[in-house]
From TrEMBL:
<comment type="similarity">
    <text>Belongs to the metallo-dependent hydrolases superfamily. TatD-type hydrolase family.</text>
</comment>
<dbReference type="InterPro" id="IPR050891">
    <property type="entry name" value="TatD-type_Hydrolase"/>
</dbReference>
<dbReference type="GO" id="GO:0008296">
    <property type="term" value="F:3'-5'-DNA exonuclease activity"/>
</dbReference>
<protein>
    <recommendedName>
        <fullName>TatD related DNase</fullName>
    </recommendedName>
</protein>
<keyword id="KW-0479">Metal-binding</keyword>
<dbReference type="Pfam" id="PF01026">
    <property type="entry name" value="TatD_DNase"/>
</dbReference>
<dbReference type="InterPro" id="IPR001130">
    <property type="entry name" value="TatD-like"/>
</dbReference>
<dbReference type="GO" id="GO:0005829">
    <property type="term" value="C:cytosol"/>
</dbReference>
<keyword id="KW-0378">Hydrolase</keyword>
<dbReference type="InterPro" id="IPR032466">
    <property type="entry name" value="Metal_Hydrolase"/>
</dbReference>
<keyword id="KW-0540">Nuclease</keyword>
<dbReference type="GO" id="GO:0046872">
    <property type="term" value="F:metal ion binding"/>
</dbReference>
Length: 355
Protein backbone atom coordinates (compact mmCIF):
# COMPACT_ATOMS: atom_id res chain seq x y z
CA UNK A 1 0.00 0.00 0.00
CA UNK A 2 1.44 3.35 -1.03
CA UNK A 3 2.47 5.71 1.77
CA UNK A 4 1.21 9.28 1.44
CA UNK A 5 2.86 12.10 3.40
CA UNK A 6 1.03 15.44 3.46
CA UNK A 7 2.99 18.68 3.44
CA UNK A 8 1.11 19.70 6.59
CA UNK A 9 2.17 16.53 8.39
CA UNK A 10 5.81 16.98 7.40
CA UNK A 11 5.85 20.60 8.55
CA UNK A 12 3.93 19.90 11.76
CA UNK A 13 6.10 16.97 12.73
CA UNK A 14 9.28 18.88 12.00
CA UNK A 15 8.24 21.78 14.24
CA UNK A 16 7.93 19.42 17.18
CA UNK A 17 11.08 17.35 16.71
CA UNK A 18 14.82 17.95 17.16
CA UNK A 19 15.37 16.59 13.64
CA UNK A 20 13.39 17.58 10.53
CA UNK A 21 11.01 15.09 9.01
CA UNK A 22 11.93 16.35 5.57
CA UNK A 23 15.48 15.06 5.98
CA UNK A 24 14.13 11.68 7.02
CA UNK A 25 12.21 11.34 3.78
CA UNK A 26 15.44 12.15 1.95
CA UNK A 27 17.17 9.27 3.68
CA UNK A 28 19.22 11.07 6.35
CA UNK A 29 17.47 10.12 9.57
CA UNK A 30 17.92 8.47 12.91
CA UNK A 31 16.87 4.83 13.09
CA UNK A 32 14.06 5.39 15.57
CA UNK A 33 12.52 8.21 13.60
CA UNK A 34 12.77 6.28 10.35
CA UNK A 35 10.79 3.50 11.98
CA UNK A 36 8.15 6.05 12.95
CA UNK A 37 7.87 7.25 9.37
CA UNK A 38 7.65 3.70 8.08
CA UNK A 39 4.52 3.29 10.18
CA UNK A 40 2.72 6.18 8.52
CA UNK A 41 -0.46 4.82 6.99
CA UNK A 42 -2.38 5.74 3.89
CA UNK A 43 -4.30 8.90 4.70
CA UNK A 44 -7.91 7.91 4.44
CA UNK A 45 -10.72 7.98 6.98
CA UNK A 46 -9.60 9.23 10.39
CA UNK A 47 -8.88 6.40 12.85
CA UNK A 48 -8.22 6.72 16.57
CA UNK A 49 -7.25 4.34 19.36
CA UNK A 50 -8.35 4.94 22.95
CA UNK A 51 -5.56 3.44 25.03
CA UNK A 52 -7.48 3.68 28.33
CA UNK A 53 -11.14 2.76 28.79
CA UNK A 54 -12.80 1.32 31.88
CA UNK A 55 -15.72 -0.33 30.13
CA UNK A 56 -16.37 -2.73 33.01
CA UNK A 57 -17.01 0.12 35.42
CA UNK A 58 -20.38 -0.04 37.17
CA UNK A 59 -21.51 3.17 35.46
CA UNK A 60 -21.64 1.34 32.13
CA UNK A 61 -23.88 -1.21 33.82
CA UNK A 62 -26.19 1.59 34.96
CA UNK A 63 -25.02 1.37 38.57
CA UNK A 64 -23.98 4.56 40.42
CA UNK A 65 -22.74 4.51 44.01
CA UNK A 66 -24.11 1.00 44.42
CA UNK A 67 -27.61 1.84 43.16
CA UNK A 68 -29.06 0.81 39.81
CA UNK A 69 -30.31 3.79 37.80
CA UNK A 70 -30.75 2.19 34.37
CA UNK A 71 -29.99 -0.88 32.29
CA UNK A 72 -26.54 -1.58 30.90
CA UNK A 73 -25.87 0.35 27.70
CA UNK A 74 -22.34 -0.88 27.03
CA UNK A 75 -23.08 -1.95 23.45
CA UNK A 76 -24.46 1.49 22.64
CA UNK A 77 -21.36 3.07 24.18
CA UNK A 78 -19.06 0.96 22.02
CA UNK A 79 -21.07 1.62 18.87
CA UNK A 80 -21.03 5.36 19.51
CA UNK A 81 -17.25 5.18 19.80
CA UNK A 82 -16.92 3.30 16.51
CA UNK A 83 -19.18 5.85 14.85
CA UNK A 84 -16.74 8.56 15.99
CA UNK A 85 -13.68 6.92 14.40
CA UNK A 86 -12.50 4.91 17.42
CA UNK A 87 -10.91 1.91 15.75
CA UNK A 88 -9.71 0.14 18.90
CA UNK A 89 -10.22 0.44 22.65
CA UNK A 90 -7.96 -0.91 25.37
CA UNK A 91 -9.82 -1.92 28.52
CA UNK A 92 -7.67 -1.23 31.55
CA UNK A 93 -7.00 -4.16 33.86
CA UNK A 94 -6.43 -2.98 37.43
CA UNK A 95 -6.98 -6.13 39.50
CA UNK A 96 -7.74 -9.79 38.97
CA UNK A 97 -11.50 -9.29 39.13
CA UNK A 98 -11.42 -6.46 36.57
CA UNK A 99 -9.23 -8.47 34.24
CA UNK A 100 -11.55 -11.48 34.25
CA UNK A 101 -14.56 -9.23 33.74
CA UNK A 102 -12.91 -7.43 30.82
CA UNK A 103 -11.99 -10.69 29.11
CA UNK A 104 -15.53 -11.96 29.59
CA UNK A 105 -16.92 -8.78 28.03
CA UNK A 106 -14.56 -8.98 25.05
CA UNK A 107 -15.42 -12.64 24.46
CA UNK A 108 -19.13 -11.86 24.68
CA UNK A 109 -18.93 -9.03 22.13
CA UNK A 110 -16.21 -10.34 19.81
CA UNK A 111 -18.65 -11.27 17.03
CA UNK A 112 -20.52 -7.97 17.18
CA UNK A 113 -17.38 -5.85 17.53
CA UNK A 114 -14.51 -7.89 16.03
CA UNK A 115 -10.98 -6.56 16.51
CA UNK A 116 -12.18 -3.56 18.50
CA UNK A 117 -11.67 -4.46 22.16
CA UNK A 118 -8.43 -5.39 23.92
CA UNK A 119 -7.26 -5.60 27.51
CA UNK A 120 -4.25 -4.87 29.68
CA UNK A 121 -3.30 -7.30 32.45
CA UNK A 122 -1.82 -6.02 35.69
CA UNK A 123 -2.45 -4.68 39.18
CA UNK A 124 -2.98 -0.96 39.84
CA UNK A 125 -0.71 0.52 42.55
CA UNK A 126 -3.71 1.27 44.76
CA UNK A 127 -4.70 -2.40 44.47
CA UNK A 128 -1.26 -3.81 45.21
CA UNK A 129 -2.48 -5.16 48.52
CA UNK A 130 -3.63 -8.08 46.34
CA UNK A 131 0.02 -9.11 46.47
CA UNK A 132 1.38 -10.56 49.71
CA UNK A 133 4.59 -12.42 50.49
CA UNK A 134 2.49 -15.55 50.86
CA UNK A 135 0.69 -15.34 47.50
CA UNK A 136 2.81 -13.18 45.20
CA UNK A 137 4.33 -16.05 43.21
CA UNK A 138 0.93 -17.66 42.75
CA UNK A 139 -0.58 -14.31 41.78
CA UNK A 140 2.19 -13.72 39.24
CA UNK A 141 1.66 -17.17 37.75
CA UNK A 142 -2.07 -16.51 37.44
CA UNK A 143 -1.40 -13.27 35.56
CA UNK A 144 1.06 -15.06 33.28
CA UNK A 145 -1.49 -17.78 32.59
CA UNK A 146 -4.14 -15.20 31.67
CA UNK A 147 -1.70 -13.58 29.26
CA UNK A 148 -0.83 -16.95 27.73
CA UNK A 149 -4.44 -18.06 27.31
CA UNK A 150 -5.67 -14.77 25.89
CA UNK A 151 -2.67 -13.56 23.92
CA UNK A 152 -4.88 -12.44 21.01
CA UNK A 153 -6.49 -9.70 23.12
CA UNK A 154 -3.90 -8.94 25.84
CA UNK A 155 -1.81 -6.02 24.57
CA UNK A 156 0.07 -4.82 27.67
CA UNK A 157 1.13 -5.46 31.23
CA UNK A 158 -0.64 -2.92 33.41
CA UNK A 159 -2.10 -0.83 34.75
CA UNK A 160 0.88 -0.84 37.06
CA UNK A 161 3.17 1.81 38.50
CA UNK A 162 3.13 4.12 41.51
CA UNK A 163 0.50 6.35 43.14
CA UNK A 164 1.70 8.57 45.99
CA UNK A 165 -1.53 10.56 45.93
CA UNK A 166 -3.56 7.75 47.53
CA UNK A 167 -1.24 6.06 49.98
CA UNK A 168 -4.20 5.14 52.19
CA UNK A 169 -4.73 2.17 49.88
CA UNK A 170 -1.16 0.91 49.69
CA UNK A 171 2.09 2.28 51.15
CA UNK A 172 5.08 3.37 49.05
CA UNK A 173 7.34 0.41 49.75
CA UNK A 174 4.66 -2.14 48.93
CA UNK A 175 3.86 -0.28 45.70
CA UNK A 176 7.50 -0.12 44.64
CA UNK A 177 8.11 -3.78 45.40
CA UNK A 178 5.18 -5.00 43.35
CA UNK A 179 5.72 -2.53 40.54
CA UNK A 180 9.14 -4.13 40.01
CA UNK A 181 7.48 -7.50 40.42
CA UNK A 182 5.21 -6.70 37.47
CA UNK A 183 8.12 -5.44 35.39
CA UNK A 184 9.40 -9.01 35.55
CA UNK A 185 6.11 -10.13 33.99
CA UNK A 186 6.63 -7.64 31.17
CA UNK A 187 10.15 -8.95 30.60
CA UNK A 188 9.01 -12.55 30.57
CA UNK A 189 6.09 -11.96 28.19
CA UNK A 190 7.86 -9.28 26.11
CA UNK A 191 4.71 -7.15 26.31
CA UNK A 192 4.69 -3.35 26.45
CA UNK A 193 3.62 -1.58 29.63
CA UNK A 194 0.66 0.62 30.55
CA UNK A 195 1.89 2.72 33.46
CA UNK A 196 0.27 4.72 36.26
CA UNK A 197 2.09 7.68 37.80
CA UNK A 198 0.70 10.05 40.44
CA UNK A 199 3.13 12.33 42.32
CA UNK A 200 5.78 9.63 41.97
CA UNK A 201 7.73 10.48 38.81
CA UNK A 202 11.22 10.35 40.30
CA UNK A 203 10.75 6.96 41.98
CA UNK A 204 9.00 5.61 38.89
CA UNK A 205 11.95 6.66 36.72
CA UNK A 206 14.52 5.27 39.14
CA UNK A 207 12.82 1.87 39.08
CA UNK A 208 12.44 1.91 35.31
CA UNK A 209 16.12 2.80 34.86
CA UNK A 210 17.15 -0.39 36.62
CA UNK A 211 15.21 -2.47 34.11
CA UNK A 212 15.12 -0.28 31.01
CA UNK A 213 17.42 -2.39 28.82
CA UNK A 214 15.15 -5.41 29.23
CA UNK A 215 11.82 -3.63 28.78
CA UNK A 216 9.81 -2.96 25.66
CA UNK A 217 7.87 0.22 24.93
CA UNK A 218 5.58 1.79 27.52
CA UNK A 219 3.04 4.58 27.97
CA UNK A 220 2.77 6.68 31.12
CA UNK A 221 -0.95 7.22 30.90
CA UNK A 222 -3.15 10.10 32.09
CA UNK A 223 -0.08 12.28 32.54
CA UNK A 224 -0.66 15.45 34.57
CA UNK A 225 2.85 16.20 35.79
CA UNK A 226 5.09 19.22 35.28
CA UNK A 227 7.42 20.01 32.38
CA UNK A 228 10.32 18.91 34.60
CA UNK A 229 8.63 15.57 35.24
CA UNK A 230 7.97 15.16 31.54
CA UNK A 231 11.65 15.76 30.79
CA UNK A 232 12.67 13.22 33.43
CA UNK A 233 10.42 10.61 31.83
CA UNK A 234 11.61 11.39 28.31
CA UNK A 235 15.21 11.10 29.49
CA UNK A 236 14.59 7.36 29.81
CA UNK A 237 14.91 7.15 26.04
CA UNK A 238 12.87 6.12 23.05
CA UNK A 239 10.83 3.52 24.89
CA UNK A 240 8.63 6.04 26.71
CA UNK A 241 5.34 7.47 25.43
CA UNK A 242 2.91 9.83 27.14
CA UNK A 243 -0.87 9.34 27.37
CA UNK A 244 -3.12 12.41 27.48
CA UNK A 245 -6.80 12.62 28.48
CA UNK A 246 -9.19 15.22 29.90
CA UNK A 247 -7.47 15.17 33.30
CA UNK A 248 -4.23 16.09 31.54
CA UNK A 249 -5.81 19.31 30.24
CA UNK A 250 -7.21 20.95 33.37
CA UNK A 251 -4.81 23.84 33.95
CA UNK A 252 -2.78 26.30 31.92
CA UNK A 253 0.34 24.52 33.18
CA UNK A 254 -1.08 21.24 31.85
CA UNK A 255 -1.54 22.80 28.43
CA UNK A 256 2.07 24.00 28.40
CA UNK A 257 3.23 20.49 29.28
CA UNK A 258 1.25 18.99 26.41
CA UNK A 259 2.86 21.53 24.11
CA UNK A 260 6.27 20.09 25.08
CA UNK A 261 5.42 16.44 24.39
CA UNK A 262 7.13 15.32 21.16
CA UNK A 263 4.54 14.26 18.62
CA UNK A 264 6.22 10.90 18.12
CA UNK A 265 5.76 10.11 21.84
CA UNK A 266 2.08 11.03 22.14
CA UNK A 267 -0.92 8.74 22.68
CA UNK A 268 -4.50 9.72 23.53
CA UNK A 269 -7.16 8.30 25.81
CA UNK A 270 -10.38 9.05 27.67
CA UNK A 271 -9.96 6.96 30.85
CA UNK A 272 -13.75 6.80 30.70
CA UNK A 273 -16.08 6.93 32.56
CA UNK A 274 -13.71 9.33 34.34
CA UNK A 275 -11.52 12.24 33.20
CA UNK A 276 -14.04 14.00 30.97
CA UNK A 277 -13.28 17.50 29.71
CA UNK A 278 -15.22 20.00 31.82
CA UNK A 279 -16.13 23.65 31.42
CA UNK A 280 -13.87 24.48 34.37
CA UNK A 281 -10.82 23.11 32.54
CA UNK A 282 -8.30 25.43 30.93
CA UNK A 283 -8.73 23.53 27.66
CA UNK A 284 -12.44 24.36 27.41
CA UNK A 285 -11.89 27.55 25.44
CA UNK A 286 -9.64 25.76 22.97
CA UNK A 287 -12.32 23.14 22.51
CA UNK A 288 -14.99 25.73 21.83
CA UNK A 289 -12.77 27.17 19.10
CA UNK A 290 -12.47 23.73 17.47
CA UNK A 291 -16.02 22.87 16.43
CA UNK A 292 -16.30 20.41 19.35
CA UNK A 293 -18.08 17.10 19.21
CA UNK A 294 -21.28 17.72 21.16
CA UNK A 295 -23.90 15.29 22.35
CA UNK A 296 -27.16 15.38 24.23
CA UNK A 297 -26.81 13.91 27.71
CA UNK A 298 -29.53 13.00 30.14
CA UNK A 299 -29.34 12.56 33.89
CA UNK A 300 -28.92 8.95 34.94
CA UNK A 301 -32.38 9.01 36.52
CA UNK A 302 -33.84 9.97 33.14
CA UNK A 303 -31.79 7.54 31.09
CA UNK A 304 -32.86 7.09 27.50
CA UNK A 305 -31.39 4.76 24.90
CA UNK A 306 -29.25 6.56 22.35
CA UNK A 307 -28.14 9.36 24.68
CA UNK A 308 -25.07 9.96 26.78
CA UNK A 309 -25.42 9.97 30.56
CA UNK A 310 -24.57 13.30 32.14
CA UNK A 311 -21.11 13.40 33.80
CA UNK A 312 -20.21 9.92 32.52
CA UNK A 313 -17.33 10.05 30.08
CA UNK A 314 -17.40 7.78 27.02
CA UNK A 315 -14.80 6.67 24.46
CA UNK A 316 -16.40 8.76 21.71
CA UNK A 317 -15.24 11.85 23.61
CA UNK A 318 -11.72 10.96 22.48
CA UNK A 319 -12.37 13.17 19.47
CA UNK A 320 -12.48 16.19 21.80
CA UNK A 321 -9.15 15.27 23.40
CA UNK A 322 -7.76 15.13 19.87
CA UNK A 323 -9.26 18.53 19.01
CA UNK A 324 -7.72 20.23 22.05
CA UNK A 325 -4.26 18.77 21.45
CA UNK A 326 -4.42 19.71 17.77
CA UNK A 327 -5.10 23.31 18.84
CA UNK A 328 -2.19 23.24 21.29
CA UNK A 329 0.16 21.75 18.71
CA UNK A 330 -1.19 23.96 15.91
CA UNK A 331 -1.64 21.09 13.48
CA UNK A 332 -4.69 19.64 11.81
CA UNK A 333 -6.85 17.09 13.58
CA UNK A 334 -6.31 14.71 10.67
CA UNK A 335 -2.53 14.89 10.99
CA UNK A 336 -2.66 14.45 14.75
CA UNK A 337 -5.03 11.50 14.42
CA UNK A 338 -2.62 9.82 12.01
CA UNK A 339 0.38 10.44 14.25
CA UNK A 340 -1.25 9.21 17.47
CA UNK A 341 -2.78 6.21 15.73
CA UNK A 342 0.60 5.16 14.37
CA UNK A 343 2.29 5.75 17.72
CA UNK A 344 -0.23 3.51 19.46
CA UNK A 345 0.02 0.82 16.81
CA UNK A 346 3.79 0.84 17.26
CA UNK A 347 3.54 0.47 21.04
CA UNK A 348 0.61 -1.90 21.52
CA UNK A 349 -0.21 -3.49 18.14
CA UNK A 350 3.12 -4.08 16.35
CA UNK A 351 1.96 -7.56 15.37
CA UNK A 352 -0.84 -6.01 13.30
CA UNK A 353 1.62 -3.72 11.53
CA UNK A 354 3.57 -6.77 10.41
CA UNK A 355 0.56 -8.32 8.73
Amino acid sequence: MKKIFSKALINAYSRNQPYPLRSILQGSSTTSTQKFINLTSTRNIMKLIDIGVNLCDDMFKGIYNGKTAHESDIEQVIQRAIDKHIDKMMITGTCMQDIHEAIELIEKLKDKFPNRLYVTVGVHPTRCSEFTEQNDIQHRNELLEIIRRHKEIVVAVGECGLDYDRLQFCDKEHQKKYFEFQLEIAKKTKLPLFLHNRKSTHDLCEILKRHIDELGLFVVHSFDGSVEELKELLSLGERVYIGINGCSLKTEENLQVVKEIPLDRLCIETDCPYCEIRQSHACWKLLQDSNPFTFEAKKKEKFENGFHVKSRNEPDNLINVLKVIAKIKQISEEDLAEITYNNTMKVYFPHLLEQ
